[in-house]
């Protein structure tokens, strides 16, 4: 016997897995944007003090 | 519109929503982790910021890293001795095991905790000074040791490691200093564009902590910036790159290179700061001396000046001994005049190197292991003179 889902998916709504994958991709993009801020904050010119 | 098309649109909308929500969650999570690492991120088994841990190697330690290093060594009843200044105090010329700041810790014993926050090329107003200010703000006993030469002092926001200043400033770490604020407001419009950019970065990072998080990642896990100085080590976590500063070569090999250039530098060392007084003696050259007078008061808050030891670094006697008598007399006069100036502004000040031997130097300015031992003795003696809070 097949049970009805507890939260029926509306017509045309993507599967949970699809949504989860999109959400995970979004998290990756969020971290990447944060990383991008770090990269953009680095000086364009290399740091040239090197009296070692 | 058919029901299939409507279903497709609803599906796309739901997926877009999940993507946007995920992006927001991911970004906020990165910010939250950045805030968390701010409280604990610091180099392990730390002895100094050797070249691979500096901006010259594409690594930008944050102000919090420096502060965490100092805080980790403090316990109630102890005084933190923060070493700032440049490559001389960083210990270039001494291998890790020879490092003068380790000898200083040995001499001072357990009542003091020494942390070497000096960076190559840094001014006394940078890195370590800002950390000392932050610790004083928290009521932690501090003695700040820095070095310089006779002359005006550069401001932390106009120097090499400018980013430390804005990092500390926007995170609310500095003591109130109305004089500095007034001068800052006057000077900001005059800053070069790269220095103005650092103001924006400092302001953003106080909220978003991207510098904190990704510098922590670069130290612990993987570095993502190619750097010509360290080449293939660029991708390594900085924690995996050891301190490879070499011990000084044998004395006979130390002063061969660039003799003419180093001699020229030694001859001109005090030229800008002292001039003949017309009676066979010397007097201070006014513009730089007046500038230095104003700078000290403005840059270093009174609380810090009262807990600060300034070391004026003499050149190696290998070069110094080749000066003409008037050149040497001018040097001695300039060192004495600026030493007095620092003292008049409430800063303990001594000249180092006057009685050192050529073997105590690795080159014109940097000290060898034996020079480091002498420096540790001088500094330990001076540090003990500060009242214990």
Description of the molecule:
The complex is a heterodimer of chains A (52) and B (389). By secondary structure, chain A is an all-alpha fold. Chain A is built from 1 helix and no strands. Chain A is rod-shaped, with a radius of gyration of 23 Å. The model of chain A has no long low-confidence stretch (mean pLDDT 79). Chain B is of the alpha/beta class and 389 residues long. Chain B has a domain of 258 residues: Rossmann fold (3-Layer(aba) Sandwich), CATH 3.40.50. A 5-stranded parallel β-sheet of chain B has the order 2-1-3-6-7, sandwiched between helices. Chain B has a two-stranded antiparallel ribbon with strand order 4-5. Chain B is elongated and about 105 Å long. The model of chain B has no long low-confidence stretch (mean pLDDT 94).
Structure keywords:
heterodimer, A: 52 residues, mainly alpha, 1 helix, 50% helix, rod-shaped, B: 389 residues, alpha/beta, Rossmann fold, two-stranded antiparallel sheet, 7 strands, elongated
């Amino acid at each position: 016997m097949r049970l009805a889902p507890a939260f029926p998916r509306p017509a045309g709504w993507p599967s949970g897995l699809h949504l989860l994958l999109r959400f995970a991709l979004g998290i990756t993009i969020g971290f990447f944007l944060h990383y991008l801020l770090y990269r953009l904050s680095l000086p364009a010119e290399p740091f040239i003090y090197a009296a070692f | 519109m058919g029901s299939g098309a409507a279903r497709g649109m609803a599906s796309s909308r739901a997926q877009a929503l999940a993507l946007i929500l995920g992006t927001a969650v991911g970004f906020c999570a990165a910010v939250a982790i950045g805030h968390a690492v701010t409280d604990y991120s610091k180099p392990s088994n730390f002895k100094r910021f050797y070249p691979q841990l500096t901006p010259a190697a594409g690594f930008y330690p944050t102000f919090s890293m420096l502060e965490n290093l100092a805080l980790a060594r403090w316990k109630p009843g102890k005084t933190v001795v923060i070493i700032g200044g440049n490559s001389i105090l960083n210990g270039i010329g001494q291998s890790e095991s020879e490092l003068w700041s380790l000898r200083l810790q040995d001499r001072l014993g357990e009542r003091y905790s020494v942390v070497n926050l000096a960076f190559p090329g840094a001014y006394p107003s940078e890195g370590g000074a800002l950390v000392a200010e932050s610790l004083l703000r928290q009521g932690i006993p501090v003695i700040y040791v820095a070095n310089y030469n006779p002359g005006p002092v550069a401001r932390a926001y106009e120097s090499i490691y400018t980013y430390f200043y804005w990092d500390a400033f926007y995170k609310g770490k500095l003591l109130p200093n109305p004089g500095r604020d007034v001068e800052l407001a006057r000077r900001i419009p005059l800053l070069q564009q790269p220095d103005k950019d650092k103001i924006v970065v400092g302001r953003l990072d106080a909220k978003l902590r991207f510098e904190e998080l990704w510098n922590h990642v670069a130290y612990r896990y993987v570095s993502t910036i190619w750097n010509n100085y360290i080449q293939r080590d660029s991708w390594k976590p900085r924690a995996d790159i050891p301190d490879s500063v070499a011990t000084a070569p044998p004395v006979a090999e130390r002063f061969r290179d660039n003799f003419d250039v180093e001699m020229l530098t030694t001859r001109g060392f005090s030229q800008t700061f002292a001039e003949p007084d017309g009676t066979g003696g010397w007097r201070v050259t006014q513009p730089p001396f007046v500038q230095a007078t104003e700078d000290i008061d403005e840059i270093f808050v009174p609380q810090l000046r009262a807990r600060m030891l300034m070391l004026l670094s003499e050149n190696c006697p290998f070069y110094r001994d080749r000066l003409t008598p008037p050149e040497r007399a001018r040097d001695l006069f300039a060192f004495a005049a600026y030493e007095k100036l620092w003292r008049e502004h409430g800063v303990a000040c001594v000249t180092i190197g006057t009685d050192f031997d050529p073997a105590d130097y690795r080159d014109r300015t940097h000290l060898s292991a034996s020079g480091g031992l002498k420096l540790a003795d001088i500094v330990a003696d001076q540090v003990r003179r500060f009242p214990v809070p």
